[in-house]
Write a structure and sequence with these properties.
By secondary structure, this protein is mainly alpha-helical.
Length: 169
């Protein structure tokens, strides 16, 4: 996978918060998560990673919530998360190729060939922009958000009861 991407399950809390409290709460959770990361770790990307994190987190959570909140069932939750996983993975390709990576390249005085070289060192199949998208960005995001969706589906009911119990005290 491209070395500038990181795997985490932060979408789990965003999705659960959105399922329980709605889309506005989910966006607030996304913003708080990014702010906490900035305070604790700082930014290694001069803000490009944080911008991408906000865009992709929103594109992951919001479609699933809009589908789920029309008819709150396990089936619509699963369908919403599946649709969101595909949607965010496609968005990630376009935002990386046309927004985030070009912005990052300019900020750091690099070239796209240097980015492709970094990716090729990890996966030799990534030889140009198209193969970087097909063999790096797309599968990484399908795996990341797919795993997050599966974990969310498994733990949501159990944790939502516990969280609602704590909040209602």
């Amino acid at each position: 996978m491209p070395p500038f991407m990181s795997f985490d399950l932060s979408g789990l809390m965003e999705m659960m918060g959105g399922f329980m409290f709605g889309p506005f709460a989910a966006v607030c959770i996304i913003i708080v998560k990014i702010m906490l990361q900035l305070v604790i770790q700082g930014s290694f990307s001069l803000g490009t990673g944080e911008i991408q994190n906000f865009i992709l987190s929103s594109c992951y959570v919001l479609p699933a919530l809009f589908i789920y909140h029309r008819n709150k069932t396990r089936k619509t939750a699963a369908a919403g998360m599946a649709a969101s996983t595909i949607f965010v993975s496609v968005v990630a390709v376009f935002t990386n190729l046309y927004l985030i990576i070009p912005f990052y390249v300019k900020l750091f005085g690099m070239t796209m060939d240097e980015i492709i070289g970094m990716c090729s060192a990890v996966n030799p199949a990534m030889k140009n922009v198209m193969t970087m998208a097909l063999f790096g960005i797309l599968p990484f995001n399908l795996i990341k958000y797919g795993v997050t969706s599966i974990v969310t589906f498994i733990v949501y009911k159990r944790l939502s009861k516990l969280i609602r119990g704590i909040i209602s005290r």
